[in-house]
Amino acid sequence: MALTYDELDAHVRDKYIPVLQDQYYKATPLTALLMAKSKVVYDSGKQIDQPVLYGELPSGWYEGLDTFNIATVENTTLAKFDWKQFYVDVTIDGTTLLKIEGSEKILSIVETKMENASKTFQKQLNESMYTDQGSKALETIGAGIAETGTYGEISKDTYDWWQGKVNSTGGAFSMDMLQTQYGECSDGQAHPDLIITTQAIYNKIWARVQPVQRGNLDNTPGIAGIGFTGINFNQATIVVDNYCPEGYIYLLNTDFWKMVVHRKRDMYWTDKKVPLNQDALVRQLLWAGALFTVAPRWSGMITGVT
User: Fold this and answer.
1) Integer Cα distance of 86 and 125 in angstroms
2) CA–CA separation, 180 vs 163, rounded Å?
3) Residues 169 and 184 sit within 8 Å (Cβ to Cβ)
4) Less Cβ crowding at N or C end of the chain, within 10 Å?
5) What 3-state class would DSSP assign to 16?
6) Cα 32 from chain centroid?
7) What confidence score (pLDDT) does residue 9 get?
8) CA–CA distance from 81 to each of 156, 264, 276 (Å)?
9) What letter would DSSP give residue 46?
10) If you write DSSP's letter for every residue of 135-153 in order, what string do you get?
11) Is residue 53 over pLDDT 90?
12) What is the dihedral of CA 268, 245, 112, 85, to 10 degrees?
């Protein structure tokens, strides 16, 4: 007896959805490191409200009976990010299922569809992390680091504490260029821990560093065991992301980056849909979330690197 649509749905939810979630969040160095730091979190609500610290509390030196400044000082605000929603359609027509005899063959078709869905999720969502896909898509990493524009409903043009460190001059790569930008993004113990670039730029860095630095992820042990390789640089790890745009180097302090996923849309397999005029299994995988930084001033990027 052939599997029913309900049985196929249950199989997908039990076997494939957890795998898809695991594959996606470990697909890129950034999401993998955020997972390791417990910075992929679940939430719900109309928007994502993220408290942002930008000022200092009253303080000062005193002697004897000097009075303290106890005035209320505004030093926090809320950045507000919209939920970004994404879907992958999974449709299997009834004719295909009828032509295949046996549950194992039917499940093999489902497995192929779900593998395709996984690759589609990874490609589309990861591309949107770097390349502007429009207002409905994720905010790019570059938008968080940029020195101008509105981010989280806060104007970067108005508040310099909401701006990242950007070197748009670029030019021929040099280690001095990288070191200078690393220093710009550092403040005491706050410094970039993940540097993302292209394979071409990574190769140039690899040729210039000491052999002991190569293939080393001591600075980011959270991603050391899931297949990534990198180069130690100061307190950061330099890695390749194939989705990184040509000529870019991103220097990220991942302590201040977060991915928030809607608790009801983490690879959600939609309920049964029965087309009025078709014989088909029609479902979608749904995801909703946002990727953002709460302290752009401690991340940076270099563009136009050759």
Assistant:
1) 8
2) 17
3) no
4) N
5) helix
6) 9
7) 74
8) 15, 17, 38
9) S
10) TTSPPPHHHHH-SSSEETT
11) no
12) 20
Region at 125 (left for phi over 0; alpha for psi -120 to 50; beta for the rest): alpha
Mean pLDDT to the nearest integer, 131-160 = 95
CATH of 5-55+75-302, one of 3.90.1690, 2.60.120, 1.10.3470, 3.40.50: 3.90.1690
Tokens 């957890």 locate to 18
| Residue 59 φ then ψ, to 5° | -160, 170
Q: Which two tokens stand for residue 227?
A: 């297949």
Q: What is the pLDDT of residue 1?
A: 47
Q: Which residues, at least 6 apart from 184, have a Cβ–Cβ distance to it below 8 Å? A: 165, 167, 300
Contact status, residue 288 vs residue 85, Cβ threshold 8 Å = yes
- Average pLDDT in the 128-136 region? 94
Sign of CA dihedral 238, 242, 247, 250: negative
CB-based burial, 258-296: b 16+ in 10 Å, e otherwise: bbbbbeebbbbbeeeeeeeeeebbbbebbbbbbbbbbbb
In this prediction, what percent of the chain has a pLDDT beyond 70? 92
Distance of CA 44 to the CA centre of its chain: 18
249-252 and 300-302: which strand pairing?
antiparallel
Q: What CA dihedral angle connects 13, 16, 18 and 19, to 10 degrees?
A: 180
